[in-house]
User: Fold this.
Amino acid sequence: MGAYRVSRPPVEAPRLTQQVACAGCAAKIPIQVLQEILGALPPPSRSPRLLVGPETWDDAGVYKMSPTLALVQTVDFFTPMVDDPYDFGAIAAANAVSDVYAMGGVPKLALSILCFPAETGDPAVLREIVRGGADALKQAGVLIMGGHSVRDPEIKFGYAVTGEVHPKRVVTNAGAKNGDLLVLTKPIGVGILATALKRGLLPRPLLQTMTRQMKTLNRAASEAMRASGVHAATDVTGFGLLGHARNIARASKKTIRIWSSAVPLLPGVREFAAQGVASSGLHSNREAIEPDITWDGATPEPLRLALVDPQTSGGLLIAVPSSKTEALIRRLKRSKVSAAVVGEVLAPGARPLEVTA
Assistant:
């Protein structure tokens, strides 16, 4: 395993991550269960003002208020995946506003959502969670209007966020074109590392790297995206890189080819995956998406696991015309945003996804 040995002594005993059932998978309902539930519902009400609804599994809903203003709305909350309560709050905030950034919007307002064991929990921990979230939202320029809290045996925290975007400048997951290249703005593997943390296997330097990435807003990435004339985007979160790429492929009626060797991984991810460190969310993602993938056989198993690993506060996956890719990469790098070209958009094929080495 090189510099990151699973057999090394564990880091300081975890705290918050030991209080939840599924650190590393954000306690998300498996995609196949969601599909079954939502498929049983009657079609949602439609309005010409509803520019983006639930049909394409996009990152947020978009509602047109006027010829020059549309609202972007989203909600996200989850259990802790790190032990420091301040960092957890900041990560939850960065994750919640990311959906607005992925739609090409600017987040403006937030309502907090909090579940906390009031009888047994430490108020100092709660205070730090809320403070971390507030500081991250302040950095994003978002006003907190209030929120709602309930008693719960598990800590859960997040926000409902409202943003704004010009109706003609919405970036959806449905606009990818043949020949577009795919740019990813953060390395993947957060779920695998968070699972290693819960098992007491994660060295502190890797914990710090993972935490720093999750706390980083997608604000600069979104600004570069908006300035570059891209065709489609999504943020990579609970369904993993391939799950969110499939959403683009289906919504755009295209096939997406991911170049697995080009996908950046956080340090230690490949090694932990080779040791079988994976959350239940990763396995449910893989089961749900496997029928939609054509593999070329050259992608090693640890990398296959990383490609379906559920992310928290992941980067943007952007479909950009090949002629504009270089300009987008330059803008991202000027803003100190990680950027890698990880695939391409093709005419629709036998399956929505292809993975090649």
About this structure: The chain has two domains: 16-169, 181-356.
